[in-house]
Design goal:
With about 575 residues, the protein is mainly beta.
């Protein structure tokens, strides 16, 4: 405690602040003893952040480098953060709601990105009989607070209420939930054998009868998604759910979409039992074509479709949408194909996929000569960049291994995420049949802190922006082109966000010629419906790139990027 007395039964949390889509992140929790002592074993030898809390206070986060000292003793966490936020949860009539679950998290879009906020995670409270709540043990920070009648009930479904440490009269109106009902049918009048219906970031609700019901929805505006193996994904926007009411969507007719079919071949001969996967972005690990452990959420976000070839080597995927996609095939014994582009359109396509021999790739990532753990390593063919990306994480020694990589030239990049900006560097390797290739990446940091201020053209309002910093000259026009460039590691790059203050920060930048590429965003990023729709259409949004020269001095530099507002999202899909 702050008075040097032991804090019995305090909660310890150990996290890796650099965990990302490459996996391998650390997130461990335990309870200290009555004397405040704790021992946590089996941790990777890397830098981890440790945080402690109890019912009334919390500690600052402490970074522990387990590479330098595999065993850390006498680590002392002092529970001296005692900031509070007080408020009430009421219904629409102003009456208090008892036993409501209140959750506060860092307000990322109000520029709350410090490591303490990430390490601590959300703070919880339960309302008393008069609807009052107290969130305790907070540092000075901006938060978003949501309330629900059950734990986690509003997660990912509400904007929340903005507040800051020290606020005493936060008022959260928790309206009676509503629901959405409807019926799904195919364009020929029949019922799909299976459909998944979802709103926001919530898991889908399955139906085999065509009828669906989404209940316990906080009153808000939603985007509804209908997915199924027999039809193209269907989206309905701006669905307004009112307090205590049922929104009946009637019959939603889903279109069959197009069919992508063909054969999987090996040296001209058909291959039975090959897995064929189609997605908007095909992301693999070092062994399997699509890591199942990433779960249905990633599959849904990237519109994944899977099938297996028959005895003739033939495959067929139905219900394919009209957008541009990527397809690839894999067989455990006979090789893996490169990713191929499935062009946008409405016509059925026939595409044969050729399995290539595979080799393996082993490598090491260092930062200023020192091993760098839990770095995301991206591997992509130089012949079909960005169509098929392998994502692997380095271990505590900075090592990584990809067991199955198609033969040929590949770009290998290391991406280090941080609370300020992600950094990327790359090299090229050639994968040979049955051989283990090697890649070494030593990332060198510069000394310049660069602030990029986003300014609206002709005084236009820009609510947020995604900002990329590429070494050299870059000219892309859309979010899709920019994403492909970034993921293919065709250029060394950093990425950051300009949030509430309109400024993106890039730390440890080296002096060089760069291109600043900006995706302006106009909309409320705390609105799940808007954020979901933006994610689906970001490839269509205009991007604006400008040249920038970063000098060796001064240590802090500022650049102003003038951009027009975001190209508007479509009203309906």
């Amino acid at each position: 405690k702050a008075d040097d007395q032991p804090a019995p039964w305090a909660t310890l949390r150990v996290v890796d602040l650099q965990q990302g889509m490459g996996g391998g992140g650390v997130n461990r929790q335990m309870i200290a003893g009555e004397d405040g002592a704790f021992v946590m074993k089996g941790l990777p030898r890397q830098t981890l952040s440790v945080h402690a809390s109890n019912d009334t206070a919390s500690s600052k986060s402490i970074d522990v480098d387990l590479r330098a000292r595999p065993k850390t003793e006498k680590l002392e966490l002092v529970l001296d953060l005692t900031g509070e936020i007080r408020g009430h949860v009421v219904n629409e009539d102003g009456e208090p709601i008892a036993e409501a679950q209140v959750q506060a998290g860092a307000d990322f879009w109000n520029r709350e990105q410090d490591s303490t906020a990430i390490a601590r995670g959300p703070t919880f409270a339960t309302t008393a009989g008069d609807g009052s709540f107290v969130l305790r043990g907070l540092p000075e920070m901006q938060v978003r607070i949501v309330a629900s009648r059950s734990l986690g009930g509003a997660a990912g479904m509400e904007k929340g209420v903005a507040a800051k440490t020290g606020d005493q009269n936060v008022r959260i109106v928790l309206a009676s939930p509503g629901r959405i009902v409807g019926t799904i049918q195919k364009s020929d009048g029949t019922t799909p054998t299976l459909a998944m219906v979802s709103v926001g970031w919530q898991a889908g609700v399955p139906t085999s009868t065509g009828h669906f019901e989404l209940s316990e929805l906080p009153p808000s505006t939603y985007e509804l998604t209908v997915r199924g193996p027999e039809f193209a994904n269907t989206y309905r926007s701006k669905l307004v759910v009112k307090s205590g009411e049922t929104l009946d969507l009637g019959t939603i007719t889903v279109e069959k979409g197009r069919i992508v079919s063909g054969r999987v071949l090996r040296k001209g001969s058909p291959v039975a039992g090959a897995e064929v996967v189609l997605a908007t972005q095909l992301i693999s690990d070092g062994s399997s074509l699509t890591p199942r452990e990433l779960g249905d959420a990633i599959d849904n976000q990237t519109s994944v479709r899977r099938t297996t070839t028959d005895a003739r080597g033939a495959y067929s995927l139905s219900g394919i949408g009209k957008t541009e996609l990527t397809i690839a095939a894999d067989h455990a014994e006979k090789g893996r194909s490169r990713g191929q582009l499935v062009a946008a359109g409405t016509e059925d396509l026939t595409m044969d996929l050729t399995l290539l021999d595979v080799g393996s790739l082993r490598g090491r990532v260092t930062l200023n000569g020192q091993p760098k753990a839990n770095v995301q390593v991206l591997v992509s063919s130089t012949e079909t960049p960005s169509q098929h990306i392998l994502v692997i994480a380095t271990d505590e020694q900075g090592m990584f291994f990809a067991e199955r990589v198609a033969v040929g030239s590949h770009k290998v990049s290391a991406m280090i995420p941080s609370t300020a900006a992600s950094t990327m560097a790359a090299t090229t390797v050639t994968i040979e049949v049955g051989k283990e290739s090697e890649a070494k990446l030593d990332m060198q940091e510069g000394d310049v802190s660069l602030q990029v201020a986003i300014v609206g053209e002709k005084q236009a309002t820009i609510d947020a922006a995604q900002v990329f910093l590429f070494k050299g000259e870059v000219s892309v026009k859309t979010g899709g082109e920019l994403n492909k460039l970034f993921l293919s590691a065709a250029a060394d790059a950093k990425m950051s966000f300009a949030a509430g203050d309109g400024k993106a920060l890039f730390e440890k930048v080296a002096a060089a010629a760069y291109s600043v590429c900006v995706i302006p965003i106009n909309g409320d990023m705390n609105d799940p419906a808007f954020a979901q729709k933006l994610q689906r259409h970001v490839s269509e949004i205009a991007v604006y790139c400008q040249p920038l020269e970063v000098r060796a001095a001064p240590a802090e530099q500022r650049y102003e990027a003038v951009v027009p507002p975001m190209s508007p999202l479509p009203e309906e899909d």
